[in-house]
Amino acid sequence: MLDLFTVLNKGGLVLWQHAFTSLSGGPVEALIKNVLIEERSGTDTYFKDTYALKWTFANELDLVFVVAYQKILQLSYIDELLETVKRLFIDTFKDTVVADQGIYGDYSPFDDMFSKVLLSLEQKHSSNRARVPRKFEDTKKFGSTLKGSQAPANNTSFSASTTTSVLTVDDDEITKNIKALKLQASPRGPGKGGRKQGPRNTNSTPNSTTPEKKKSQKQMRTWDGQIAKGEMEALDYSGGGNSDSVDQDMVKAQHLDESKLGTKNQQGIYEVQDVDIVDDDDEVDDKDETDITQQQQQSSGTGVFSFLKSITGQREMTADTLDPVLATMKDMMINKNVAKEIADRLCESVKSSLIGKKLGSFERVSAVVRTSMESALKRILTPKTSLDILRDIEQAKSEKRPYVITFIGVNGVGKSTNLSKVCFWLLQNNAKVLIAACDTFRSGAVEQLRVHARNLRALQTSGGGVVELFERGYGKDSAGIAKDAITYAGANNFDVVLIDTAGRMQDNEPLMRALSKLVSVNNPDKIIFVGEALVGNEAVDQLTKFNNALKDFSGLQNPRHIDGMILTKFDTIDDKVGAALTMTYITGQPIYFVGCGQTYLDLKNLRVSHIVQSLLRN
Ligand code: GDP
C-alpha cells in the first residue's frame, strides 16, 4: 500500500498529489533536500524514518514524480507505476506545463486516471505473486467456445499482462496501457487532443529497470585495523627530538613569513587567508570541448543528418549523447582525485537530470553537461550550516560554558598540527583556549602537544589570547580526560576546549568504540574530521566508517556525526582538489579549513568557487 504519490516541479512545487495517509517527518522534503538538491539522485531508493521513496524525472518538463511507501513493504510494481504515471501525466498535460515560465495548469482530472493505473498494477502484481489460476475466460480454450468467440478480442481495460517477470517495465506495455487508460478517461475516445506519445526512453529514471551499467565497486585500499610497527614509527612524529624540531620550524616560519598572516576584518576579527589554487587563465578548455564534441559526433553519427539535427534545435538529450561527455567528465574528476565511487554517482545524477531535456539551437551537449555539473558541484559544496565558529563560541560564552571542538581522524593525517593551527587562529581572536591531550595511546602525543602549547604561548605577543594544556598522561580513558578538561575549562573561564584524540584506523573496532564513547560522554559542539587532501578512494571508507561508528556505538537515540572537515597537506596536491568534493559529498558537511603547510600560519579558507573551477579545469 502506498502512502503518497506526488508530482513536483524541480523547484519543489507540488503540481498534483495523492496522499493515502498523512505523512510524518516530511519524507518528501527530506528527499528534495538530501537527494535531489545534493545530487544524490543517481541512487535508487531514499529511506527516511519508516518510509522508502523512489522517484523518476521528466526532464523535458522539469518534473519529478515521487512515490512514498512503508519501507518494510516489498512492492514490486513501484518502478512500473512511476514510469506509467509519468508517461500518462506527460502525455495528458504536457501542453499545460511551461516550466521555464513557471506556468502550470489544473491537474485535478489526473486523480481518476491515477487511481485506475494504481488499481490495475496492484491487481496485476498481486495476481502474479499469488499465481492465481487464470480465469477460464482468459484461456485460449475460452476463445474456441461459442461465448468466447463472441467476446471482444480486445477490451479497453488496463492490460494486466501475464508476464512472469513482475519487475520488468515494458515500454510497449506501458504505451498500450496508457492508450487504454486514455480511452477510458475520454468519453470522446482517442481523438481528444489528437496527440500521441511515442515510446520514450525510459533511461531517464535512476529507478528504471532497463538494463544499466552496474555501478562498479570501489577498489578499496585494505587496512587491517592494526598498524605495523614500522608504519607506527613512521607516523609517530612526536617522539624524541622529532616533534621539537618540527615545532621549532613552525615557530621560525611564523616569524619569517609574515606574508602568510591573515588579516583583520572590519569587525576586528582575524581571518585566515583564502587558498589560491586557480590560475589567472580562466578560459574554457578548448581542447576538452573539442574532444567532447568529437566524441559526441562519433557516437551520434556525423554528416548532414547531425548538422540538420543541430540546427533544428529539437534534439533531445539521450543516454547515448550524454554518456561520452559524462565519461570524459568523470575521468577528469577522477584525475583530480575525486573518489571513483563519488564521480560515478555524481555523473549518474547529472545524467538523470538531463535525459529527455531539449537542446536549444546550436547548444552543445558538452556545454549543457558542464553547466549542469557546475551547478551540481556548487550545490554540494555550499555549506548548509554556518561556518562561523567564532559566533558559536560567543554564544557558548553567553551560556557560561566553554565551546568544545573534537578533532578526529586516522593516524598521521595532521590532527595535532592542525589543532594547533586552529588554536593559533583562536588566539589571534583573543580566545582563552584549553588543549585537552586525549591521545593517550600514541607515545609522544602528549609531549607533542606540550611543545605546541609552549610555541603558541611564545608566539602570542599581543591580544588577550591564552593557551594551556590539559594532560593526564597515557593509557587512561580518553573520554574521562576530556570530561575533566571540560569541567576544568568551565571552572577557569576558558572559552574553548580543543580535544586532540588518538588517530585510529576506521576498521579498528575497539578504538572506534572508544571514540564514540568520548563523543557521547562529552557531546562536543563540533566534531571535526581531519583528513588528508591526498586521500583518494579511501576517503569514502574512512568517513563512512567514522560516521557509522559514532552512530552505531553511541547507544544514543540521536547519535552525533561528523560536523565538518579540515583537509590537510593541501600544499602537496597542486590542483587535485577532489578529496574536498568526496568528503563533502559523503558527509554533507562543510570544510572549515585547509592545512597548507607545517607552520601555524598554514591554515586557510577554501572557497567553493575555487574547488569548482579547479575540478572542471583540465
Ligand atoms: P596526527 O597524527 O594526525 O596528529 O598528525 P600530526 O599532526 O602529528 O602530523 C603528521 C605530519 O604531517 C607532521 O609531520 C606534520 O608536520 C605534517 N602536516 C600536518 N599538516 C600538514 C599540512 O597541512 N601540510 C604539510 N605539508 N604537512 C602537514
Automatic annotation (TrEMBL):
<feature type="compositionally biased region" description="Low complexity">
    <location>
        <begin position="199"/>
        <end position="210"/>
    </location>
</feature>
<dbReference type="InterPro" id="IPR000897">
    <property type="entry name" value="SRP54_GTPase_dom"/>
</dbReference>
<keyword id="KW-0256">Endoplasmic reticulum</keyword>
<dbReference type="GO" id="GO:0005047">
    <property type="term" value="F:signal recognition particle binding"/>
</dbReference>
<dbReference type="GO" id="GO:0005785">
    <property type="term" value="C:signal recognition particle receptor complex"/>
</dbReference>
<feature type="region of interest" description="Disordered">
    <location>
        <begin position="143"/>
        <end position="162"/>
    </location>
</feature>
<dbReference type="InterPro" id="IPR007222">
    <property type="entry name" value="Sig_recog_particle_rcpt_asu_N"/>
</dbReference>
<dbReference type="InterPro" id="IPR013822">
    <property type="entry name" value="Signal_recog_particl_SRP54_hlx"/>
</dbReference>
<dbReference type="Pfam" id="PF04086">
    <property type="entry name" value="SRP-alpha_N"/>
</dbReference>
<protein>
    <submittedName>
        <fullName>Signal recognition particle, alpha subunit, N-terminal-domain-containing protein</fullName>
    </submittedName>
</protein>
<keyword id="KW-0675">Receptor</keyword>
<dbReference type="Pfam" id="PF02881">
    <property type="entry name" value="SRP54_N"/>
</dbReference>
<dbReference type="InterPro" id="IPR011012">
    <property type="entry name" value="Longin-like_dom_sf"/>
</dbReference>
<feature type="domain" description="SRP54-type proteins GTP-binding">
    <location>
        <begin position="590"/>
        <end position="603"/>
    </location>
</feature>
<keyword id="KW-0342">GTP-binding</keyword>
<dbReference type="GO" id="GO:0005525">
    <property type="term" value="F:GTP binding"/>
</dbReference>
<dbReference type="GO" id="GO:0006614">
    <property type="term" value="P:SRP-dependent cotranslational protein targeting to membrane"/>
</dbReference>
<feature type="compositionally biased region" description="Low complexity">
    <location>
        <begin position="292"/>
        <end position="301"/>
    </location>
</feature>
<feature type="compositionally biased region" description="Low complexity">
    <location>
        <begin position="153"/>
        <end position="162"/>
    </location>
</feature>
<feature type="region of interest" description="Disordered">
    <location>
        <begin position="282"/>
        <end position="301"/>
    </location>
</feature>
<comment type="similarity">
    <text>Belongs to the GTP-binding SRP family.</text>
</comment>
<keyword id="KW-0472">Membrane</keyword>
<dbReference type="InterPro" id="IPR003593">
    <property type="entry name" value="AAA+_ATPase"/>
</dbReference>
<dbReference type="InterPro" id="IPR027417">
    <property type="entry name" value="P-loop_NTPase"/>
</dbReference>
<feature type="compositionally biased region" description="Acidic residues">
    <location>
        <begin position="282"/>
        <end position="291"/>
    </location>
</feature>
<keyword id="KW-0547">Nucleotide-binding</keyword>
<dbReference type="Pfam" id="PF00448">
    <property type="entry name" value="SRP54"/>
</dbReference>
<feature type="region of interest" description="Disordered">
    <location>
        <begin position="180"/>
        <end position="222"/>
    </location>
</feature>
<dbReference type="GO" id="GO:0006886">
    <property type="term" value="P:intracellular protein transport"/>
</dbReference>
<dbReference type="InterPro" id="IPR036225">
    <property type="entry name" value="SRP/SRP_N"/>
</dbReference>
<dbReference type="GO" id="GO:0003924">
    <property type="term" value="F:GTPase activity"/>
</dbReference>
<dbReference type="InterPro" id="IPR042101">
    <property type="entry name" value="SRP54_N_sf"/>
</dbReference>
